[in-house]
Amino acid sequence: MELYFGGAYNGKLRYIKEILNINDEDIFYCSSGEIDFSKKVISGIDKLIYNNTLEGKSSLIYFKENLHNLRGKILICDDISSGIVPIEKEDRKWREETGRVLQLLTKESNKVCRIFCGLPMVLKDE
Question: Residue 64 has what DSSP assignment?
Answer without folding.
Answer: H
